[in-house]
Amino acid sequence: MLKALLEPFRHPYPRSVIDQGGGGGRKPKAKAKNWSGTLGRLWQYLAKRKAKLALVLLMVVFSSGLALLGPYLLGVAVDDYLEGGGGRPWVLFLTGLGLVYAGSSLISWLQNIWMIEIAQETVYRLRGDLFSKLHRLPIPFYGKRQQGEIMSRVTNDIENVSSTLNSSAIQIFSSVLTLAGTVTVMLLLSPLLTLLTFLVVPLMALGMRWITRRTGPLYKQRQRDLGHLNGYIEETLSGQRIIKAFSQEERVIREFRERNDAIRQSGFWAQTISGFIPKLMNALNNLSFALVAGIGGVLAIRGTVTIGVIIVFVEYARQFTRPLNDLANQWNTLLSAIAGAERVFEVLDEEEESGDEREAVTLERVKGEVAFEGVTFSYDEEDAGDTLEDITFKAKPGEMVALVGPTGAGKTTLIQLLSRFYDPDKGVITLDGRDITAITRDSLRSHMAFVLQDSFLFQGTIRENIRFGRLDATDAEVEEAAKLANAHSFIDRLADGYDKRLGVGGEGISQGQKQLLAIARAILADPSILVLDEATSSIDTVTEIKIQEGLQRLMQGRTSFVIAHRLNTIRQADKILVLREGRLIEQGDHDSLLRQGGFYSELYQGHFEDSETGQGR
Ligand SMILES: Nc1ncnc2c1ncn2[C@@H]1O[C@H](COP(=O)(O)OP(=O)(O)OP(=O)(O)O)[C@@H](O)[C@H]1O
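Above are the sequence and the adenosine-5'-triphosphate SMILES. Below is the predicted complex in structure-token form.
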């Protein structure tokens, strides 16, 4: 029992906390050294409002100075009274004292408002940079993280930075200043008494160091655990249907409880251990107070110092420990903010999509001739096998290319390389004879459109969703595209027509209807190159025919790459690329491939012949 209680005090953080919540091998100690770097970077953001910040800091200096003046006036008043008044009116001192305190309050009120303004602007910029950065990061970044975890950085972590900048930053600065000022005045008044007050300082420093070495990693861990929890919440909410369908609610709740518990533990220990700081300060405070009062009293009796000096000193000794107490209290928020800022900067430091080469051009018009020459690619550099190996083929403008092959053969990967979500390790991909890495990504992608199996639709009206293909399209053009895609008739039957609002991810219409909208969106985009991932799920025959018709119209005059599952589509293809385990083993049209009697003909005989709708994955 005792061993368990002492656990957190022996390790920088409890074992139970280290072992929970994923992401093993954490080394918070090493990271803790980056704090000065994190603060430095935060300062770069703050420094954008240097002038106002300087004004605020000046006000802090002024208000701290006024606060220092108070006790001094009090001491002068007491000595004056004890010396018989000397004709100086008491009222004057009291009025002076009142003005000093009122002025100090007014100035701190103003400085607070301005600091909030600076803090809000800083966080506004930080949040903006983070969001833009997220949109410049390559696809693999998202593959490695849960969305909720990323969300947590944009929301929770930024919020932590915000609340600290709002209130704690000024308080910390003001405390440091008050501390420096108080110490100076104390030294001037009585070096001996100052020394007595200072006796407790090494103890305070040691105590603070001991505590923060334990809490720092815990605050960081809490932020990390919170990120994991948010990731888990996001994933389980978006996977609600599957969780319910497989009756996994209990398991999900149990796992949530474990993750929630990890946060409870890291939060509990971080708060509990930091909670010692004010207690420790208070105890040491009282000790220094007793020393100053006791020894100061003796000195006063002996006549070495005046009673006024003792009163001023006691007052300053209290002022000296107050900023220390404030610092101790602000420590929690500061640690939490540093942990948050570190996580934000971590994302800001991520490598972006490799930049467009300096000579990269923007293509206005493209014919649509695509060629792969000896393209080799692997997702994982350390992985032994290549996902795609030495792929070479050519697609002429307007040709329809069908990609076939068993699951995991590399069909999707080939498309991802063409859209430059990844770049090949070896070989080149050309568009109209030009290496695609010499074309800006924006321009390359503007000539391509995608109709995928689960075409993503946004929350918004049907009209807005189609217009996503080309933002400057008129209403008439949107309707024209919908007509060509065979989507118009179903939209027309809806009560709100084109103004019907779709829910998250296009909720509110059927799977087939979503496909029709995706086709309309692609028609509106009018791309030279088209990527289609044929739906494998069965859609009713009428919708299916409509989709096929829409696709036929969409493909006319465009180079199309179709990850094909239907025999009809494959048969119509000008060129079929047969992939197997990352290699392009056969290419040609349906008849010539059948004549070859190779893998395609095996696939055809084994699977396609049985059914018109399955590829027999
Ligand atoms: N993001 C990724 N990171 C690492 N490996 C990946 C990634 N995506 C796919 N792979 C691997 O690359 C290989 C090819 O996958 P790809 O998705 O291209 O196959 P596919 O032919 O499109 O399969 P399917 O027909 O099932 O969609 C597979 O072995 C897969 O496990």
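Residues 363-447+561-617 form a domain with the Rossmann fold fold (CATH 3.40.50.300).
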